[in-house]
Structures are given as C-alpha cells and as structure tokens.
Amino acid sequence: MRCQRVRELLSPYIDRVLSDEERNKVEEHLTACESCRKDLAELQSAVNRIREMEKLEAPSDFMSKLHERLLQKKVAPFSRHGRKSHLVNNTSGWLVASVASIALVMGIYISSLLPYPVVASFFDRIPQFVSSQDSELRNNIEKFLSEKKQQMQMALNNQHPQTPEVKEGPEKALTDPKPQQVAVAPENEPAGQVEEAVEPILINTVNLELSAADIDQVANSIKQLAEANGARTETYNSQLMAGATKVMTVRVTPEKLSSIVTGIESFGCQAQPMHVTQDLTQDYKNIKKRIGEVEIEITKLQNLEELNADEGNKLQAMLFEKSYLENQIAELEANTQLVAVNVMITEEPNH
Amino acid sequence: MLLGKDDDLIKLSIQGDIRAFEELAAKYQHKIYSLAYRYMGCEEDASDMAQEALIKAYRSLATFKGESSLGTWLYRITTNVCLDELRKRRRTLHMISLDEPVATVDGDEIERDIADPSPTADIIYEKKETEVYLQSLINMLKPEQKAVVILRDVMDLTYEEIAEVLNCSIGTVKSRLSRGREILRKKIAKRELLP
Q: Does residue B180 surpass a pLDDT of 80?
C-alpha cells in the first residue's frame, strides 16, 4: 500500500471502522514507514485534543427563553392548528388531488371487474378512508366526489345510443374484459426501465342478474347466504342507473361457489350466470407504480427538516393515498384466491 | 432508540402540549447547545441557533417517524439550521476556509496558510487558550468538513449516525472526516512544535 492511500485510511483506522483486510494492510505499512507512523501519531493527538474539548452546557436562561418563544402565537405544530385555520382548503386541496389520483388508477381496476354502476359506487367508499373528524374536509371531498359522479352520469347517458337496451348494458359490459374504462393510465414505461416481474393477477368472476320487488330484502338474503358459507360481501348502492339498483359482490372459495350460485339463482335470476376470468395484472402494476411514486413523494417530504403548512397537508394526503392503494393491493392479492360472484339486483319494472 | 417516555412526550407535543415538548427540549438542551456552539463558535449565536432548531423541531415533530432516534433527528435539524446560517454569512462576508486553495499569479494553486489566531505561543497549553485555539480551527473548516468533525469528535456519533444526520453515505462521512481531520492535524502539529 502506498503512503498516500494509507494516509487516507488513518482517520477510519483510529476510529476502528476499517475492514480486517484494510487494517492489516495499514498496520503492515506502518511497521515499515516512519513518516506514516508520525502522521498517525499527530492525527491521533489532534483528534484527542478535539475530543477533550470542554463539554458545554446551555445557559441557565435557555429553557425560559424557549418557553417564551413557544408561547408566541405563530409557533404551532402544523398538525394541530393547520386544519382550524384558513389552511383547511389546502388540506382538502391535496386530499382531493390524491382522491382524483386514486380514481385514475383504480378506475381501470373497478371498471374492468364490475358493471358500470359499481365504478361510480367506488367513490362512495372513499370518504371512509378519511379518518379525520374534520367535517369541512369531509364535505370538500364529498363535493369533489359528487361532481365526479355527475360527470360519469353524463358519460353514461352519452353512451346509451350505442346500447340497444339499458338492461343489457351491464350484461354486455361483463362479456368485455375492459368495457367502459373511465380512465386509462399510460402503459408506456420509460425506455430502459426494468419492470418488476409480477405474477399474473387473475380473478374468476361469475356474474348474475336479478330483479326483485324488494331489493333490500333480496340483498339481505344474499348476505345471509354468503355469511352462512363463510364468504365476504360488498354491497354498493347505485343511483346512476334508472331505477334503484344494488350491486353485490360475494367473494367465495371455489369449493363453495356452486352452492352460492344456486342459492342466489333461487331468488329470481333473469339470465344464465356468466363466467369471466379477469386479468387485472396491468391494473395491479398501475397501482404498484403509483404507490412507488407516492412513496418517493412521502420520503421527500419526510426528509425535510421542517414542513410548511402546505407541505404538511401534502404529506397527509400522500400518506392517505398510500394506505388506500396498499389496501387495494392487499385486497387484490387476496381476491385472486377467491371467485367473485357479482350480483346486480334491479327493481322489478312493475313496482 | 426511543424510550417509551420520549414517545409519550412526542405524542403530547404533536397535540400542542408545550410542557411535554419543553420536557423533551430540557433533556437535549445541553447537547443541542453544545453542537450549535461548535458550529457557530460563540455563545450568543449558539444560543440563538439552538433555540431556532428546537422551535423548528416543535413545528415539524409530526413528521418525526421514529426511524432514527430523537437525538439524531434533533442533531440533524440543529446542523441544518447552523450550516444554513453559516452559508448565509459566508456569502455576505466572503469568509475563507482553511483548505480553499489560493490561486497564485502564475495560475498554480497553493494551500492557504492562515495566521494562527492566538498571538502568543507560550500559553497554548493553558486550557482556555487551547479551547479558543481549537474552536478557531474548527471555525475555519468548510461547512461539510466541520459538520463531520463536530458530529464525530465532539458529539461522539457513529459513522452511521452521522450519515443519517447529514443525509449522505457512510463513504462520504469517511472521506470528509479524513479530509477535515487532516487539516486539523497539520495545524495542531505545527503549533505544538513551537517552543
């Protein structure tokens, strides 16, 4: 080892952080080189002098001065006062942006899996993820969501001319893997980027359509049937279609599938059950990709030693978005093990 | 790692409990002051910067995730506050640092040799003088070298902790420390050779 290299290693050498190999080489060199030994002695002495410097204490009035400054009105942790002030709109602004981003990513997933009304009812579930008790914040999000739903309603109305009968709409939609995409996330990856390998996310679905005089009663019966078979149900109310509609998804193990389907059919099925395998791999990737982006944002914000109010609000929104999307990934992964029985219940026209 | 008690105090502080935060601040006040003093080099600035760092910590405590220790997190804020202030002053005062080479007339660069701050050589072993002298050497280091030397040799942090505080790699810590200590070695050795 040359002297120059050894001198670079003397500092980590005295801190004992060199690898065994490096340390041996340095020691070997030191035995033979007087000049480097002298440097080491001087370096050790200099470091010792700095280390032996007086341990200082804060002045006696330090804490009382701090107390005064903390009492000043403008000093406040953002999480406590941020929402109560004019900043509330910023908080909502960031959260609404996050919700919009979720809608963009999730729109594909939901629309390819379920009949169209469910795409809209997805929005109904979002406010549940806003744990805040801040009613103004919640109102803002709900306002955004209702505007979004209106837009979808208009989109749906515009599509009717191409659909022979409203009733066939959903059924037709089910046969097409991606019938009515609300939003298409760009699939083009930047050139040269290695995409993480993902197991195909395939979900077997069985779609049923019922019409009933009392929607709630049928929905309740289906729920009981599902529970008796240890299956989980998700129910969506939809105000998008003409007349009242409920859409239920029963997630059932393959073994229990036939008994569930037979049971539901007995409540008054309109058509033959339709089996479709949905490939949600791309949707899964889209969500994962978005989580990655959100994580980068979160890390950036958390690395700032101080956040201004706007950055604090953004961080909250990003954390919310991340937890929502991670929840969806977990759900999606769990759902590949199950069959999704989608039941669309519409009110009988006579009633 | 966080003690259970710190954890509780942090939660209360985030909710706006000033007393809880003051309890935390009281625990760390001497270390933070000491750190700020070594960066700034005088009592008045040290006190101001340490206060500033604690106020910043209070404001952004909600972003503290407990991934590093509270101490490391506070050192990071203090370091940033002090280095920002020093950079600001450096811009205005055009201060020079020890290892900033001086360009000579014929275009070569030679190492700057500063006049030693302490006038008389015969009292260098007196503690107070030595303290002042050593602090003056620290003051002359470039901010990034100053930070690693102070965090390692004054605050006794590990390389890993320093990397966390400065948000850089351990390799960077090693090389900056090596360079900073080398400058101090030369200065101190030269001084101690004096009669």
A: yes
Confidence of residue A229 (pLDDT cuts 50, 70, 90): confident
**A339: in domain:** yes
Token pair in block for residue B75: 């050192």
- Comparison of pLDDT for A329 and A89, the residue scoring more: A329
Joined tokens for residue A195: 């995409």
Is pLDDT of A227 > 90? Answer: no
CB of B60 within 8 Å of a chain A CB? The answer is: yes
Q: How far is CA A349 from the centre of its chain?
A: 40
Q: Nearest residue on chain A to B59, judged by CA atoms?
A: A77
Backbone angles phi, psi at A85, to 5 degrees: -100, -165
B134 and B180 in a single domain? The answer is yes
| Cβ count within 10 A of residue A321 | 26
Which one-letter amino acid corresponds to residue B32? Answer: I
Q: How many CB atoms lie within 10 A of CB A98?
A: 24
Considering B41, B69, B93, which residue would you say is the last residue of a domain?
A: B93
Question: Any alpha helices (H) in chain A, and if so which ranges?
Answer: 3-14, 20-32, 34-51, 62-71, 78-81, 88-113, 116-125, 135-159, 168-175, 215-228, 257-265, 281-303, 309-335
Contact B153 A307 (CB under 8 A): no
The domain total for chain B is 2
Question: Do B46 and B111 share a domain, yes or no?
Answer: no
Which is higher by pLDDT, A170 or A212? A212
Collect all residues of chain A within an 8 Å Cβ-Cβ radius of residue B149.
50
% of residues, chain A, pLDDT over 70: 60
Answer whether A95's CB lies under 8 Å from A141's CB: yes
Q: What is the DSSP code string of A182-249?
A: S-----PPPTTPPPPP----EEEEEEEEEEES-HHHHHHHHHHHHHHTT-EEEEEEE-SSSS-EEEEE
**CATH code of the domain in which B126 resides:** 1.10.10.10
Task: Summarize pLDDT for A65-111 with one digit per residue, the tens.
Answer: 999 888 874 555 544 333 333 333 444 556 666 666 666 665 433 33
Largest pairwise CA distance in chain B: 64
Task: At B121, list the tokens.
Answer: 């050589």
pLDDT of A44 strictly over 60 = yes
Per residue in A135-174, pLDDT (tens digit) is 555 566 666 666 655 665 565 555 444 333 333 333 333 3
Q: What does the pLDDT read at residue B119?
A: 44
Contact criterion met (CB below 8 Å) for B182 and A43: yes
Max Cα separation, chain A?
Answer: 105
Q: Does residue B27 sit in the same domain as residue B70?
A: yes
pLDDT for the residue B178: 96
Three-state DSSP class for residue B159: helix
Residues 26-55 (B) with a CB less than 8 A from some CB of A: 26, 29-30, 32-34, 37, 43, 46-47, 50-51, 54-55
Out of A12-26, A226-240, A309-323, B7-21, give the one with best mean pLDDT: A12-26
Cα–Cα distance, B190 to A140 (Å, whole number): 69
CB contact under 8 A, B63 and A301: yes
